[in-house]
Every structure is written in structure tokens, then in C-alpha cells.
Amino acid sequence: SCKFLKQQPVRELEDDQFLRLVVAEQAGVLTIVIQMKIEGATNDSYLDGIKSLFTYNLFNQRDELVKNWDAERTKVIDLAFTKFLLPQLEKELRVKLLNEAREFVVR
Length: 107
Hints:
Shape: elongated
Number of strands: 0
Number of helices: 3
Oligomer: single chain
Helix content: 55-70%
Strand content: under 5%
Order of helices and strands: HHH
Distance between the termini: 19 Å
């Protein structure tokens, strides 16, 4: 049984635990929030790595136009991740976790 969950990595969910959480959420007892970023974690290396693929570094001889375009590219990448990619990944993760929990119950 679960009494309290906060900032638990999904990899630590066991057996039918997620299914029980979803049932409780549907009953209005709790709300499941899947965070892609945990408070206190400062490792943005994945997103920074992607941003670096779309920005230019011309041996520190960057003119204002290049800097402005890099800023726009960075905004677009941030928008794509926060508004489109991460919400879709959350939906897919919920489906995967629910299916795994259901399979456990069926076995």
C-alpha cells in the first residue's frame, strides 16, 4: 500500500502500484503529477546538448545577427520541448506504466 509519494522516480513503481494510483486519481482522492524535472536537479545537459546542435560558434567572432538568431533558435527549442515533446512523453509514459501494472494484475 502507498500512503505518501513525492518525487518518486517512476522506475521505483512496483507491481500494480501505478494502477492503484490511477484508480485513486479517478476517485478524486489524489492527483498524479509526472514531472520531467525534479526540483533541485541542475543537470540540463541533454537539452543544452540539443541547443548546441542548433547554435553557431564561429570561434568567438560572432556578430549581432548570429547571436540574435541563436537566441531565437534557443527559444524555439525550449518551446518545442516544454509545449510539445515533454507533454507527449508524459502521456506515453502514463500509458506504458498503466499497461505494465495491468499486465501484473492479469498474471
